[in-house]
Amino acid sequence: MAIHSDRSPISFQDELPDAVDAVIIGGGVIGVSTAWFLVKRGLRVLVCEKGRVAGEQSSRNWGWIRKQCRDPDELPIVIDSQNIWEGLAGELGEDLGFVRRGVAYLAETERQLAGHAEWLDVAQQHQLDTRLLSAAEVDELIDGPPGQYVGALHTPSDARAEPFVAVAALARGVQRQGGRIIESCAVRGIELEAGRVAGVITERGPVRASAAVCAGGAWTSLLLRHMGINLPQLTVRATVARTASAPDVYAGNAAAPDVAFRRRQDGGYTLASANVNEHLIGLDSFRHFLKFLPSLAASLRYVRLRFGGMLGRMVPQSWQDDGESPFERVRVLNPAPSQAALKQIRVRVNARLPALADCPIEEAWAGMIDVTPDVVPVMDEAPSHPGLFIATGFSGHGFGIGPGAGRVMAELVVGRPPPHDLTRFRFSRFSDGSAMRPGPGL
User: Fold this and answer.
1) What's the rounded Cα separation, in Å, for the pair 336 and 338?
2) 170 near 33, Cβ under 8 Å?
3) I need a surface site. Which of 31, 196, 297, 440 has the fewest CB within 10 A?
């Protein structure tokens, strides 16, 4: 595995068509999943990716596909998504690393355990297999020093897949169904006729289309602002590492109060800090400060503020559609991992999982997670721009919910009623006076 950069080989290079039914802006898990469901409906689809398919957070996440502790409004889509993930390998003819090995939230104190237990009511409403484990059951589940935990919240049916291979495999499936995907093809702007979407302007030329889906992850608000649409969106940096092949300490996904770990298909473990993400302060931090106050107050224990917001520092905030755009200047957002976070991960893993103490870390990386003020996504048609659909702000949930969200967006594009209630995810909630109700977090 090697994390994508501007210098990564191009894998998807179809010809630019004159016209399609829908253009997907962004080749991450949400965009590719949306394309997948659209091409299966017989639509002509083009995916434009400024850098590399799954080059940013879609290949840099933990690989968890969990229902446990999701926002109640997201949960029906997550359940749908998990079931889609399970069948995708068979449809695609490629191994995505999908297995159901469970998710465990470990608790050191009775107070932490009680906090986890609050979600049991939601689990019961959806007839999930989530339950509380005793200290003895946790010791049986995880190979670590006994007595570390008073218990855990555990959902055995939760799953994982391998982000680095899964999204690219789905993209190849889109191509086999007749969809086109072009890397290093930034969308500079969107053309309108009589107020409706009529096409997109790419760096390689225009493409006619009656629908465009903006699924640009951390870059979405910048493109929308270019069109006069204000989307409150910020990013946080998350640092992740992977080990060499290691002894089996737990076959599923687990989060202790200070470190998260999951077994990988290659025999190693993915490791991350379970309670620290970093927000790099930039122009948008001040632009959206008031909108984000409730979620900031709720997450002060987990988010560290650092100066040097990446998007504001590295790219211009305005451009002309017939000239170079910010998306061409920075093809792949590839932040350096936090050395402090890596040191903390190493110390915590050595203490929590002594069997991994001598296991070397083979690779470390960071990704920029796009976050909304209420920590749930936008899945909606832009009220002011008919034919423009927005799928962004998945706030660290994107990989797991991706196929389910893609099915939702495909239904919106073709004008069918969505399969789930999307009231919580409407774009207008940021401007209609609705109180920001932060979800469960990253």
Assistant:
1) 6
2) yes
3) 297
Average pLDDT of the chain? 92
Task: Tell me whether residue 51 is exposed, middle or buried, using C-beta atoms within 10 angstroms of its C-beta: 0 to 12, 13 to 18, 19 or more.
Answer: buried
Distance (Å, whole) CA 244 – CA 268: 5
Mean pLDDT of 78-86: 98
What number of other Cβ atoms are within 10 A of residue 341's Cβ?
22
Name the residue with tokens 């297995």: 99
Vertex 296, ends 291 and 297: CA angle to 5°?
110
d(CA 63, CA 261): 10
pLDDT band at 313 (very low <50, low <70, confident <90, very high): very low
Q: What are phi and psi of 25, to 5 degrees?
A: -100, 100
Is residue 371 within 8 Å of 442, Cβ to Cβ?
Answer: yes
Sign of torsion over alpha carbons 168, 171, 172, 173: positive
pLDDT score for 311:
53
Nearest CA to 212 among 388, 414, 392?
Answer: 388
The predicted-structure confidence for 253-280, as pLDDT tens digits, reads as follows: 999 999 999 999 999 999 998 766 666 6
DSSP class of residue 13? B
344 and 411 in contact (C-beta within 8 Å)?
no
Tokens of 390: 């927005």
| 288, two tokens | 């959206």
Helices (H), 238-288: 283-287
Pairing status of strand 103-107 against strand 151-155: antiparallel
- Alpha-carbon span 342 to 402, nearest angstrom: 28
Pairing of strands 253-255, 260-263: antiparallel
Question: Three-state SS for 193?
Answer: strand
Q: Do residues 16 and 43 lie in contact, with contact meaning Cβ atoms separated by under 8 Å?
A: no
The amino acid present at 110, given as its one-letter code, is E
Coil, helix or strand at residue 258: coil
Q: How many CA atoms lie within 13 A of 347 on its CB side?
A: 7
| Residues sharing a CB contact under 8 Å with residue 359, sequence separation 6 or more, in sequence order | 243, 244, 246, 247, 268, 269
